[in-house]
């Protein structure tokens, strides 16, 4: 079972690539969804987040208030590291369980781990291939502001909170340049899929 890591900075087009790979037959394991799952109300992870960051990061319905937590951690590398130390081990365990479930269901399947924080958390895992979705930081900032409605400063803080493009590109086995049109990104992804299936 090929195990492929797909990473990229915020607003890099990574989700577009993941969706296309799923259409082509890959099983996608989404790290962001796992994060939401392990932080669900009643979870040990959410209880620890509340303990470390305060009750004001918990919404009235008992769920994590992501905006409140984000305001505390994204401009403060030390706080972000504290959060990651709580969340990453739980995400690692759950992602591994999902990889094994996919392999058990079909040993020939291609599993793609859609993971924004690969460099920060799991770069040394035994991936068969690391794919990086790449668009320049200025383009990603524009997308965050124009497409997601973020304030310019908030968008820049999100980008700055992640590793540099240089560090991300340095680990890439394959790069999908997402700075052009959607059609160009899809074309590159289709070509990547053909290489994966033929290897």
What is this structure's SSE topology?
Blueprint: E1 3-8, H1 14-24, E2 27-30, H2 31-38, H3 44-53, H4 66-73, H5 77-105, E3 111-114, H6 118-121, E4 129-134, H7 137-148, H8 152-161, H9 165-170, E5 174-177, H10 182-198
Parallel strand pairs: 1-3, 1-4, 2-3, 4-5
Helix pairs in contact: 1-10, 2-5, 3-5, 7-8
From the structure above, extract its key features:
199 residues, alpha/beta, 10 helices, 58% helix
Number of helices: 10
How confident is the prediction overall: mean pLDDT? 94
Principal-axis shape = globular
* Helix and strand composition category: alpha/beta
What order do the helices and strands follow? EHEHHHHEHEHHHEH
Summarize the biggest pleated sheet. 5 strands, parallel
Strand content: 5-15%
Helix content: 55-70%
Give me the Rg, rounded: 17 Å
Low-confidence sequence ranges:
none
Terminal Cα span: 12 Å
Question: Concise description?
Answer:
58% of the residues lie in helices and 12% in strands.
Describe this structure in words.
- With 199 residues, the chain is of the alpha/beta class.
- Helix content is 58%, strand content 12%.
- It has helices at 14-24, 31-38, 44-53, 66-73, 77-105, 118-121, 137-148, 152-161, 165-170, 182-198, and strands at 3-8, 27-30, 111-114, 129-134, 174-177.
- It has a 5-stranded parallel β-sheet with strand order 2-3-1-4-5, with helices on both faces.
- It starts with a strand and ends with a helix.
- The model has no long low-confidence stretch (mean pLDDT 94).
